[in-house]
Amino acid sequence: MKTNKILDRTKKVFIYTGLISIPxxxxxxxxxxxxxxxxxxxxxxxxxxxxxxxxAYPGGNYITMMxxxxxxxxxxxxxxxxxxxxxxxxxxxxxxSTSQDSPNYYWNRAYRAIAxxxxxxxxxYSAENPDQYRSQIGEALVARAYAHFMxxxxxxxxxxxxxxxxxxxxxxxxxxxxxxxxxYERKTVSYVYQQIEKDLLxxxxxxxxxxxxxxxxxxxxxxxxxxxxxxxxxxxxxENVIKHANLAFPNGTFLANMRPWPTKYQDxxxxxxxxxxxxxxxxxxxxxxxxxxxxxxxxxxxxxSISANQRDRIASQTVAGSLNLYRWTISSGQSYYIRKFSEHxxxxxLNATTGVGYSMIPLFTTEEVLLSRAEAYALTGDYQASLAxxxxxxKQRQTASSYVPLxxxxxxEYFETExxxxxxxxxxxxxxxxxxxxxxxxxxxxxxxxIPVTHRTYTGEEMVLGVNDPRRILQMPAEVVLSGLELNxx
Length: 490
Description:
The protein is 40% helix and 11% strand.
């Protein structure tokens, strides 16, 4: 029996991981419980470690739950698929399902990725010639940091310098599993952030982009700096956001690496867009992950999804006017969506009608780095630089004939404020919301800025997720709780 769950913390915890090509391989669950096997793949070359690191990226998909919880979606009653993950997330309930696209599934796949990274690091550090493994060490450290970063952002209270020293975090696992029973500590959000930063900064300079056959499936130098940009944005250190954004795109190379919505994309069909949006050929995709997910199939038919009115509010009524990417919006009943994703379906057998869906998703993009830098400039008081970044973004979201540069006066008037920092920050959030619709990242901005979310049912019932609502934190998996970890409060 193979299983892909890593259980959590505090008391005694039963941890076992079913990973292809790595740590513990066993033929039956009962036999595994009888004794601890040690039938390990011998990781004795840099190439073998590199093959293992393919598994160091979470194979779970976070978009369904994050998008459904956000203010991007509405109740499109009478249309499409009623799905428990989509529905429970819309109502901010603890999702009962443990299948792909669920919070539990993402938790397990993230810790599975961490296990792969730890196994790789052990092989590298114990090698006779560890200097030959520098690049593998770098990738493993950054990948381990990323998986923990996503977990702490979703399953703990969002980072706040005022409370991070007391807010419960998630277990930061740094060693391969060599025993069946092991004690784990949750510690604090502050501790988890310290460990993330340590791994990220230690691993980043070791990365060697030339090692990768397909660089966009791995943490390259650019992708790692993009990760650092997001990390420091969440941590509230705008100077470091600017630093790493500039290292990701030195000498102002953003424009050549953005999605060409008003030019090359202009003449393609929605089907063609769905096929190329997540491809490695698109310079905007800095890191792409293959996820086990139904998102590409179902996001356009979920009951709780975007509508025509919501679409217009998000991207056709912005401080810059209408953004051209919504030219690719198509209708599925009452829902309106941009066809960003395509699915790869693997049948369970030659003549089977059942199987597993896979979706490629961009984990980091050029546009996120640019908009993060624009926000950081605003937070540091460099308003002209912030406006310049916003205008660079808008130029690639509008045709030349419709583009009108943003000015300080325009953003102040639009947001009805005299505070330019506030107006520019809101402009950045507005552009981020439009850019990453269907990609889940709006949820992180809701958490970062304590934005209330209002959901309504078709009958008019109104539900509000307030600033301090504990449902902003995803619930710990049931099996982790059974191992001694307390539930997140509700």
